Amino acid sequence: MLNLVLFGPPGAGKGTQSEYLIRKYQLVHLSTGDLLRSQIASGTELGLRAKLLMDQGLLVPDEVVIGMIESKLTEHGESAPGFIFDGFPRTVKQAEALDDLLAHHNTGITTMIALVVNEEELIRRLLKRGETSGRPDDRDEATARRRVSVYNNETTPVASYYEQQGKFAAINGIGTIEEIFASICQKIDEAQA
Ligand code: AP5
């Protein structure tokens, strides 16, 4: 199985690149942000509680997102050719839980690929998307900057977690979508060699 963690700050291009990757490698795309937004759209209690945090740019509790990923892995079972984890794990606790869950399915993470983009470019992209996406967490600069700050403080340690396992690759997330996609594919080839 090819199991990728696509990592990077808000606006780095994880969702954009995931769309290309799932087509090329036939992977199942698991985005915790999308799963949470679907809960919000369905008006579930989990969604209502998550929305309060997401609208402020804060993380949803680990147990909630780990539970969502667990049920998705069970749903797809070992028949999937692999998974792309987008926006998950965001804490070391989530990364440890993911390793345990994958071990139960007799598999593990192949590599983490981190998209590196500077803060001003991230804010520019998020505010531009906010003009049309309707995402409440894209609407104002203060919330966008809080999301980047939460990433810097709470999520960056996840990169070291994978680096210690020899499963970390960073690439420049600035450039055309095609150029970045080519760099990601090269890192995947290296990880599988
Ligand atoms: P989530 O939905 O995961 O959002 P995010 O990480 O903030 O990521 P984004 O979707 O904003 O950006 P992206 O990197 O996917 O970039 P995209 O491709 O869209 O999380 C939302 C919230 O849910 C969190 O804040 C948290 O509250 C909660 N949550 C989710 N997962 C959680 C977890 N595991 N634990 C706890 N809480 C969790 O691109 C952005 C824009 O840039 C687009 O407009 C795109 O067109 C453009 N763009 C893309 N590539 C390029 C390029 N190369 N050049 C120019 N523009 C580009």
- Per the CATH scheme, the topology name is Rossmann fold
Considering the protein shown, what is the CATH homologous superfamily?
Answer: P-loop containing nucleotide triphosphate hydrolases
User: Would you identify the regions where 5 or more consecutive residues have pLDDT less than 50?
Assistant: none
Q: What strand order characterises the main sheet?
A: 2-3-1-4-5
Hetero compounds: BIS(adenosine)-5'-pentaphosphate
Compute the number of structural domains.
Answer: 1
N- and C-termini, Cα separation: 14 Å
CATH classification, class level = Alpha Beta
Which sheet architecture does the biggest sheet show? 5 strands, parallel
The number of distinct helices, counting runs of at least 4 residues, comes to 9
Envelope shape: globular
How large, in whole angstroms, is the Cα Rg?
A: 16 Å
| β-strand number | 5
- Mean pLDDT, to the nearest integer, reads 96
Structural class: alpha/beta
The share of residues in helices is 55-70%
Which range does the strand content fall in?
Answer: 5-15%
The H/E string reads EHEHHHEHEHHHEH
CATH architecture: 3-Layer(aba) Sandwich
Assembly state (oligomeric):
single chain
Family: Belongs to the adenylate kinase family.
Binding site for AMP: 32, 37, 58-60, 87-90, 94, 135, 147
GO molecular function: AMP kinase activity; ATP binding
Catalytic activity: AMP + ATP = 2 ADP
